[in-house]
């Protein structure tokens, strides 16, 4: 018997809790009661609280709250506040329209005027942003072309003599070192190529056994020095190209082009704004 009573009490408690949850007052309905009773001051105050705390309200609920708030503000002759409330609605739904069946023509006229100016300003903003994007793209392309042209010129110089490309890009220490070593190895290579060819002819034209051995030794030494010079110059040439392509300042310049160019943005209150973003 006691168990049955306990179960009845538990189920009654659960049913009462469920009923209470179902009958919980909707904040919009509560606001609507005050609105329909023409308590405009209370409507504005409560609407501000609901918007501030935004208790999981949907867009449609927020729009309805703002509608009642705007009409209340207009009714209290606060046109600026009403305008801002209507703009908040349009920011959520730019195609929003007031219901003529439950709204006075005077308020509808006021709203339509606010909407027309808002849409015109929005269109102006979109056009200016589009123009700013075009200008930004043009400057980005122009600067990229300058950087790529500079890089092409540096590559051509580097192909002629390792280090000249680095010097052209302003890397003086590395450029001077590479240019000096490359010039020495190139000159050495040319000299020993000519020298080994001449000594090879002397060796091949020799008939005296003693002269043959001396000429061979001389040719062999010149031949080895020629090969060393060729390998040295080839290594310097290859290193210079790799350094230029992978580790030169061109890569950081190319990466930072879009970061350091001016960005344009139109703001309805302040007009066209210019900003920079620098990355280090």
Rounded to the nearest angstrom, the distance between the terminal CA atoms is: 80 Å
Low-confidence stretches: 15-23, 254-280
Major sheet: 2 strands, antiparallel
Shape: rod-shaped
Number of helical regions: 10
Strand content: under 5%
- Residue share in helix: over 70%
Please state the structural category: mainly alpha
Mean pLDDT: 79
Radius of gyration: 42 Å
Helix and strand succession? HHHHHHHHHHEE
- What is the count of structural domains? 2
Q: What is the quaternary state of this protein?
A: single chain
Tally of strands: 2
Give, in spatial order, the strands making up the sheet with the most strands.
1-2
Relevant terms:
disordered C terminus; two-stranded antiparallel sheet; 4% strand; mainly alpha; 280 residues; 2 strands; Serine Threonine Protein Phosphatase 5, Tetratricopeptide repeat
Task: Describe the protein.
The chain is mostly helical and 280 residues long. The chain has 2 domains: 25-126, Serine Threonine Protein Phosphatase 5, Tetratricopeptide repeat; 141-264. Helix content is 79%, strand content 4%. It contains 10 helices and 2 strands. A two-stranded antiparallel sheet has the order 1-2. The longest helix has 56 residues, at 105-160. It is rod-shaped and about 130 Å long. The model is unreliable at 15-23 and 254-280 (pLDDT under 50).
């Amino acid at each position: 018997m006691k168990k049955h009573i306990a179960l009845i009490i538990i189920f009654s408690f659960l049913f009462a809790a469920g009923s209470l949850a179902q009958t919980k007052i909707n904040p919009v309905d509560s606001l609507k009661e005050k609105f329909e009773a023409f308590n405009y001051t209370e409507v504005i105050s409560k609407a501000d609280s609901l918007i501030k705390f935004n208790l999981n309200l949907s867009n449609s609920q927020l729009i309805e709250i703002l509608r009642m708030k705007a009409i209340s503000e207009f009714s209290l002759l606060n046109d600026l506040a009403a305008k801002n409330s209507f703009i908040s609605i349009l920011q959520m739904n730019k195609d929003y329209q007031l219901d003529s069946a439950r709204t006075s023509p005077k308020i509808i006229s006021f709203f339509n005027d606010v909407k027309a100016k808002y849409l015109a300003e929005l269109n102006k903003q979109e056009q200016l942003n589009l123009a700013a994007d075009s200008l930004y793209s043009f400057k980005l392309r122009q600067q990229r072309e300058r950087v790529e042209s500079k890089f092409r010129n540096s590559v051509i110089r580097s192909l002629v003599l390792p280090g000249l490309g680095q010097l052209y890009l302003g890397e003086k220490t590395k450029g001077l070192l590479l240019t000096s070593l490359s010039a020495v190895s190139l000159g050495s290579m040319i000299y020993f190529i000519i020298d080994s060819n001449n000594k090879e002819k002397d060796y091949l034209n020799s008939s005296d056994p003693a002269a043959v051995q001396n000429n061979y030794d001389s040719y062999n030494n010149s031949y080895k020095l020629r090969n060393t010079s060729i390998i040295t110059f080839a290594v310097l040439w290859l290193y210079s190209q790799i350094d230029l392509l992978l580790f030169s300042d061109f890569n950081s310049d190319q990466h930072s082009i879009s970061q350091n160019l001016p960005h344009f943005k139109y703001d309805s209150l302040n007009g066209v704004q210019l900003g920079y973003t620098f990355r280090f």
